[in-house]
Amino acid sequence: MNKIPIISIIGRPNVGKSTLFNRIVGFRQAIVSKTPGTTRDKVFAEVEWDQKEFVLIDTAGLMLDFVACDEKEIDSAAQKQIDSALSESDLVLFVVDAKEGLNAEDKEVAKKIRKLEKRVVVAANKADTKSQEQLSEQFRAMGFDEVVAVSAITGRRTGDLLDLLTRDFPKLRAKDKTRIPRLAIVGRPNVGKSTLFNLLIGEEKSIVSDVPGTTRDSLKFKIEVGPKSDQTEIEVIDTAGFRRKGRIKQGIERFSVIRTIESIYKSDIVLLLMDASEGLTRGDAHLAELALDNKKSLIIALNKIDLSGADIKDLLRFPFITKQVRVAISAKEQSNVDLLICEIAKMAKNFKES
Fold first, then answer.
1. Phi and psi at residue 221, in whole multiples of 5°?
2. Can you tell me the distance from the alpha carbon of 192 to that of 119, in angstroms, rounded to the nearest whole number?
3. DSSP SS3 for 329
């Protein structure tokens, strides 16, 4: 394999896919909750194990029937993203629940995966003790030879799982470990962050919907920006919509907001996306202040300018923001996005040269 191998984590809802993802990645990147369907977008992470490198993708729980879903449009989009993840993967990590045992849903997922004719490793999760490891044997009936009993919660046998997953992966060559600049896209819910993210990376990696709060995890992807003769690689992070403290619901939404703040802390450039048709709010100003207080380069993009008749100056009434780089765009109409990319490229290049 010349490219970095890709592994997708697949399984029915609530078997511990995101917990296993976080265990392998080494920190809590994907949001974990007992609520089925918490993961909607594909979540990417680069992983190094035993001098081998691969990309790990966490996906939504594979649901074969949408009749009972409250948000059918979004859940259907999530399932399409699973198909996309499967098609681009070199290996499938099929997670099942060892304690619940083999059931009809697992068999249906297995049937779907077998059609891909790709290597499949089964992780029988929630085998927390040595005596529970034998629970994994029943899953061999699905027709997959490589089955490992693991516990994502305790980390039991996850090293054995990684050894098996990376068995045929090439060893890393010596390479430049210089860190590339990180760009975090932040803003209030439903201002168009995922639309812009997808536009920047050139494909639909993030689910786009009119329902506020669709993006729950922070998504990462590497792209090159700038003129072809002098391109700069950056890592783009799409985050959940940020609400002010008093409007944050407990549970999953609260975790999403915490993840957005963490993304700002870990970024080098913050792209604050605003809704030009609504103007600048105190929530927008709070995000801008958070970025500037942490000495991040800040770009302000006023999205949906096609829906606003206001002058750009009228939308920026907070004095400290008028000194920042500002671009008026329409992500939906792809208007002025090239100008925004030019500004991103300038900041990224300045970061690398500093």
1. -155, 145
2. 37
3. coil
Contacts 24+ apart (CB under 8 A), 317-323: 317/280, 318/280, 318/285, 318/288, 320/288, 320/289, 320/292, 321/280, 321/285, 321/288
- Burial (CB < 10 A; 0-12, 13-18, 19+), residue 265, is exposed
How far, in Å, CA of 138 to CA of 119, rounded?
Answer: 19
Q: Which two tokens stand for residue 30?
A: 């994907």
Q: Rounded to an integer, what distance in angstroms lies between the CA atom of residue 216 and that of residue 208?
A: 12
DSSP class per residue in 211-242: STT---SPEEEEEEES-GGG-EEEEEEE-PPP
Domains of the chain from N-terminus onward? 6-165 (3.40.50.300), 182-353 (3.40.50.300)
Total-model pTM:
0.53
**C-beta separation of 289 from 186 below 8 A:** no
**Pair 94, 123: CB distance under 8 Å:** yes
| DSSP-derived 3-state class of residue 179 | coil
Q: How confident is the model over 115-164, as pLDDT tens digits? A: 888 999 999 999 999 889 999 999 999 999 999 999 999 999 999 999 99
DSSP state of 108: H
Strand duo 43-49 + 52-58: pairing: antiparallel
Return mean pLDDT, the chain.
75
DSSP string, 60-92: ----S--TT-SSHHHHHHHHHHHHHHHHH-SEE
**∠ CA(59), CA(247), CA(276), 5° rounding?**
80
Tell me the C-alpha distance between 328 and 332, whole Å. 13
End-to-end CA distance of the chain: 35
What are residue 91's DSSP bridge partners? 7, 119
